[in-house]
Amino acid sequence: xxxxxxxxxxxxxxxxxxxxxxxxxxxxxxxxxxxxxxxxxxxxxxxxxxxxxxxxxxxxxxxxxxxxxxxxxxxxxxxxxxxxxxxxxxxxxxxxxxxxxxxxxxxxxxxxxxxxxxxxxxxxxxxxxxxxxxxxxxxxxxxxxxxxxxxxxxxxxxxxxxxxxxxxxxxxxxxxxxxxxxxxxxxxxxxxxxxxxxxxxxxxxxxxxx
Length: 210
Prior knowledge:
Shape: globular
Helix content: 25-40%
Order of helices and strands: EHEEEHEEHEHHH
Radius of gyration: 16 Å
Strand order of the largest sheet: 2-3-4-1-5-7-6
Distance between the termini: 9 Å
Number of strands: 7
Number of helices: 6
Structural class: alpha/beta
Low-confidence stretches: 204-210
Largest sheet: 7 strands, mixed
């Protein structure tokens, strides 16, 4: 796993499935987080580009010399369904000249407790089909991630049924709070870098902190 993040994040992509029927499912944690982030950063207009909904926003950050600055960041929600997210994201990266190290992906994570949020730099896909598609299309694992915990399915429920299951009314608040926490982590990564965000959000000694 990379120990440093030398490049500034220029694109943040949230993973999910398009359509109202998926809006309140666990698999759409990335979409909810990117919507929250877009609201904060003033994304007033989303356009269709390269098979994704895209908004260009201005975000605070640091320049190459470590001085505060404001720069353009691309927000994206692939519209090709989770399993083929890599197609739109790779096309957008090519369109905007974004290297894998400059990409931050927000996605749901079975291996974290519901509502838990963790930042990760690089790594594999751990069976997540959206990440697998991105790795295949980019030819790189070096993008950063914000992992939004949804927990494992109960009993004998299949994973596909769990991730596509709508939140029950009493779970909606938890999902909404996770989106807020993930957007917080993304803002921190944009402002101070992914390594700073990882160390601040994950916390020393917490499981999965590195």
